[in-house]
């Protein structure tokens, strides 16, 4: 495990607080989603990232406002950490017209292009090449942004991962590949799918530098991503950062399946002790003297924000069924009627 | 100007007009230049905007999608349409769905060009025409230009359309010549072209099949049979009215598509006419397409596999209840002699 970070930033209270708050907001929002789910008000397959929040928080805080992110069906964390509108998220889960895709995408396709979250896809690894193409565009446009492609450990099983990495390295594109290794592709362990289980080494023969980090430490994630992004932004090669983590909830759905045989129970026990929120909370308390009252206020404020988002979702209208065909194609502007015989 | 030159002209005009247009694909920068359609583009626009790719159709399609999302207008060329099967996930799960699935916030202005092969032993994997696959899935536009005029105008409309477009070209069309205006013009989507007017029967055909049908029609004309040839250049979106109006006029419909008939474009058009102009039909709809096997290599087998002018003449005569002419039925002359 490579726990040395890429930059030498001092631990600072402001960033640490922001990381904690981002994680807390994700945790509270997702716990609320899990709580509501059995009521059937949310009819969209939910893939919760509880236990993995440090990666979403660290990645999103380390990127610049102009940068783009592509994610997966387990995308609530990125959406929230990046600053996506919480009301629109809940409205989307409820299938409401006020949702972030107006009820077209649901939980697996959350998106917030206004803050650079460009898309999330349910087909494993499928946004890796798309993110790579966004980075190609950035390169053609004058290296105006860095693109972060975030995916799970299952994605490195797919061919497009290697194809994309090869192209990115070949063209020296401004892209950062981020693998959230929670050890399970649905219920299948990394070691059941790969002889080489150190996923950060997957691009090695293609010329991709990879590093593995503790992914439940938001500060480690933040520094690793920040360092890599700075390097890439100033003309450096693409990189792959692997963050090890653990999914506390089931692959899909609102419950925990800790009793199931696919779980490696030792890792589960460690993960429950190694909660990313507790880790940063403890650092904030011990190093910076943040009080229980402050933590309590954050908790209270986010719970309020989540409750308001739920109310908003509940009160929002469903889309009209007459809108079923809307947005299949985009209408064109400009260059009209240039064909003389039309 | 040839069809290949017309495509070349479209790319040149588009790249001059808009710096966000770029061309990628296996072999676009080599000495063969995709049968001439990309000739001279590297010299003119540089290697950043005209580049060869790794042989990775899946990811490279995703790369085009991502570039399109981020403000570029990629043209991704496949010298053989068969390789598009490798790109299906990206094309159908992502490109086709991105605008809709994300509530109309981001569209994917990309063009995928693909060339279909035929004859001289192209075989099972160098001969497939995939229009029905793309037509089946909502969110992708599908066009099949037939003439050099169509080719240039349709490629320009496709490049400047904000949606993903799959353009299916035919290798045998690359050498045909026709009038092509200079500069910028467009061939509109949702346009079906009547290639030849006639009264006895409607022949719906696309791309290279139009050429075979024109040859058949010329021969039939000499026998006193007048067929109307209707070419849905834009399959998605489809101009249904021109097809329906022709059937309403003739009362008889034969569809000759470049793909297999089963669940194919011919099936779709037959269903369209059955649903919307059944009362106009004087006899059952007939369809022609590839025989339902992979394309074979050996000449007699290959000949049996494809629909061509002779077979079209025979079916038309059967449908009209007249004797199949005994004389020599023309076989289309083509410059193409292989290997590729």
Q: Return the CATH class of chain A.
A: Alpha Beta
CATH topology of the largest domain in chain B: Rossmann fold
Percent range for β-strand residues of chain B: 15-25%
| Count of helix runs of chain B | 12
Structural class of chain B: alpha/beta
Quaternary state of this entry equals: heterodimer
Describe this structure as you would to a colleague.
The complex is a heterodimer of chains A (342) and B (340). Chain A is α/β, with parallel strands linked by helices. Chain A has one domain (13-323): Rossmann fold (3-Layer(aba) Sandwich), CATH 3.40.50. Chain A contains eleven helices and eight strands. In chain A, strands 2-1-3-4-8-7 form a six-stranded parallel sheet, sandwiched between helices. Chain A is globular, with a radius of gyration of 20 Å. The termini of chain A are far apart. By secondary structure, chain B is of the alpha/beta class. Chain B folds into two domains: 3-173, Thiamin diphosphate (ThDP)-binding fold, Pyr/PP domains (Rossmann fold, 3-Layer(aba) Sandwich); 193-320, Rossmann fold (3-Layer(aba) Sandwich). Chain B has helices spanning 3-17, 41-45, 57-69, 88-95, 98-101, 131-136, 148-159, 208-222, 240-250, 265-276, 299-305, 309-320, and strands at 21-25, 50-51, 73-78, 111-116, 141-143, 165-170, 193-196, 201-205, 227-231, 234-236, 253-260, 286-290. In chain B, the strands form two sheets. A seven-stranded mixed sheet of chain B has the order 2-1-3-4-6-5-10, sandwiched between helices. Chain B has a five-stranded mixed sheet with strand order 7-9-8-11-12, sandwiched between helices. In chain B, helix 8 crosses helix 12. The longest helix of chain B has 15 residues, at 3-17.
